[in-house]
Amino acid sequence: MKKRMASTLPLLFAAGAFLFSACSKNSGTTNTDANAPGAATATSSPSATGRAPISSQATKSGWWVRINPSATTAQVITFQIGESKFQREEWRVWNAGEPAEFDVPEKYSQSPRLYLRGNVTPIGKFATLCMMYKDRGVEHMSFDDDDSETMSQTEIDIKCR
């Protein structure tokens, strides 16, 4: 058993190194030939990334998020969104220093009910935010690991003015 393991271990390392180099070959590099297949571009289209671009300015015409940067010590907040806990999807990652107000994806913008889950990195640091609907605060959330809420357009939370 030890001989077999000793002889396959170098093969596993070689295979791992090969896969790592193949996967990371194009990550973080820019192709200077703009017409070359797979060339990097400054802006990605939704079809290229599989997701709609995230707007840097909240229109506030439906559901939107307002992070309180002065009360948020977490470096990263990862969000899931949907119409319920059972019907949700990965949405976006917010990093400290990015705009603190942003709209939810268009398909949820006018949903009567909305589910939001947030996770912080690193755990133990705080995220404080308000879920807003148009001009009204609907749900205040403050957490140091993760939190989730299901809310409706008609709710009002006085902590979110």
Any chance you could write out the topology, listing elements then pairs?
Layout: H1 2-24, H2 46-49, E1 63-67, E2 76-82, E3 88-95, E4 101-103, E5 113-121, E6 127-133, E7 136-143, E8 146-152
Antiparallel strand pairs: 1-4, 1-6, 2-3, 2-5, 5-8, 6-7
- In whole angstroms, how far apart are the ends? 68 Å
Query: Uncertain spans, ≥5 residues at pLDDT below 50?
Result: 15-53
Chain-averaged pLDDT: 78
Largest sheet: 4 strands, antiparallel
The portion of residues assigned to helices is 10-25%
**Category from helices, strands and their pairing:** alpha+beta
Strand % is 25-35%
Count helical runs.
2
Q: Strands across the major sheet, in which order?
A: 4-1-6-7
How is the quaternary structure best described?
A: single chain
Order of helices and strands: HHEEEEEEEE
**Compute the gyration radius: what is it?**
21 Å
Shape: globular
Number of strands: 8
Features:
alpha+beta, four-stranded antiparallel sheet, globular, 161 residues
